[in-house]
């Protein structure tokens, strides 16, 4: 697939404010110049900090100026690329950076080759994207830090509070079931005591990876603190929640976590509860928590749920 590769360092870009490159709109509307588009876009891009929205506005403006079929944005920190439009045969790509900071990779594509004048226009417009893109990336990073546990990457207590309140409202409105499970790693103190805190941290990360692998993308995993976690399961009744809890219990039991090549068996105790009409976040969490403690009392490595 033909790709015209470019690296754009915004400090060095060949962008000149007085550029006169003008293109005709594809749909027969009057001529629009690069300067017009830059002026409008500079204002429009300031209206959002959402990465996807910023890129969408940039894509729309670019399409006013040039024929483009699709825009794809990738960043090493994001799991999946952002796509506006669709892919074409010919692509031109930009690796973007500013003052040494990596800002991601942008690829534009269409069915015909890009000529030199068009590439200059694209670069001219890319300059307007610099600060909005950098701000959107910083905003995303700040949100991630505010809502995720730094050690394991699971959601933190603040994220759980926010999402649990939202999911309870939505479940009560829609009538769809909502279940929640509390998971506590068994005898975790002995991991720290026998192998040290650093290995304990690795063991916690391994548990989180293991639980994440058994969940659907829509399910949320949160760290309540220490070695205690919560899984929020939307559209899930008590029977389905019990199946999920049992699957998690088994996968932790089979984890085969190793310390210095030596296997370290791990297990967890789980309690779950399903939303009742009279429940609020506190009572739902408390019920699941009490059942988790019942699982501990019953001998650990087991699930206790609705009667
Ligand atoms: N490595 C590590 N340990 C932690 C972290 N947070 C809490 N802990 C440890 O987790 C252990 C929890 O111990 P306990 O609450 O006594 O429970 P337990 O040993 O898991 O025993 P049961 O829950 O009764 O099965 C303590 O030793 C805490 O120091 C952490 O972020 N990293």
Automatic annotation (TrEMBL):
BP-aspect Gene Ontology terms: cell adhesion involved in single-species biofilm formation; negative regulation of bacterial-type flagellum-dependent cell motility
Annotated EC: 2.7.7.65
SMART domains: GGDEF
Coiled coil (residue ranges): none
Highest taxon of the lineage: Bacteria
One Pfam entry name: GGDEF
Predominant subcellular localization, coarse grouping: membrane
Gene Ontology CC: one annotated term: plasma membrane
GO function terms (MF aspect): diguanylate cyclase activity
UniProt cross-references to PANTHER family, sorted A to Z: DIGUANYLATE CYCLASE DGCM-RELATED, REGULATORY COMPONENTS OF SENSORY TRANSDUCTION SYSTEM
Reaction catalyzed: 2 GTP = 3',3'-c-di-GMP + 2 diphosphate
Family annotation (PROSITE patterns): GGDEF (PS50887)
Cofactors that this protein relies on: Mg(2+)
Alphabetized CDD domains for the sequence: GGDEF
Protein name: diguanylate cyclase
Locations listed in the record: Cell inner membrane
Enzyme category, top tier: transferase
Lineage: Bacteria, Pseudomonadati, Pseudomonadota, Gammaproteobacteria, Pseudomonadales
Domain GGDEF per the UniProt entry, residue ranges: 176-307
């Amino acid at each position: 697939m033909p790709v015209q590769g470019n690296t754009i360092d915004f400090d060095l870009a060949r962008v000149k404010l007085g550029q006169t490159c003008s293109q005709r709109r594809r749909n027969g509307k009057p001529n629009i110049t690069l300067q017009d588009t830059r002026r409008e876009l500079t204002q429009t891009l300031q209206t959002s900090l959402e990465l996807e929205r910023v890129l969408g506005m940039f894509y729309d403006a670019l399409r006013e100026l040039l024929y483009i079929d699709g825009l794809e944005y990738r960043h090493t920190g994001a799991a999946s690329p952002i796509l506006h439009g669709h892919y074409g045969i010919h692509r031109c790509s930009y690796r973007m950076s500013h003052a040494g900071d990596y800002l991601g990779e942008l690829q534009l594509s269409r069915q015909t080759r890009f000529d030199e004048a068009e590439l200059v226009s694209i670069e001219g417009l890319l300059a307007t994207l610099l600060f909005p893109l950098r701000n959107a990336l910083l905003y995303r990073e700040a949100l991630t830090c505010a809502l995720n546990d730094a050690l394991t990457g699971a959601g933190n207590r603040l994220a759980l509070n926010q999402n649990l309140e939202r999911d309870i409202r939505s479940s009560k409105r829609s009538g769809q079931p909502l279940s929640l499970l509390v998971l506590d790693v068994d005898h975790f103190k002995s991991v720290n005591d026998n192998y040290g805190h650093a290995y304990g941290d690795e063991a916690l990360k391994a548990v989180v990876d293991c639980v994440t692998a058994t969940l659907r993308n829509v399910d949320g995993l949160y760290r309540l603190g220490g070695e205690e976690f919560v899984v929020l399961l939307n559209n899930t009744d008590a029977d389905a929640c019990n199946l999920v809890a049992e699957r998690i219990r088994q996968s932790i039991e089979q984890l085969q976590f190793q310390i210095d090549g030596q296997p370290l068996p791990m297990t967890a105790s789980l309690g779950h509860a399903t939303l009742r009409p009279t429940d609020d976040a506190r009572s739902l969490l408390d019920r699941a928590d009490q059942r988790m403690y019942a699982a501990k009392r019953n001998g650990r490595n087991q699930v206790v749920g609705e009667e």
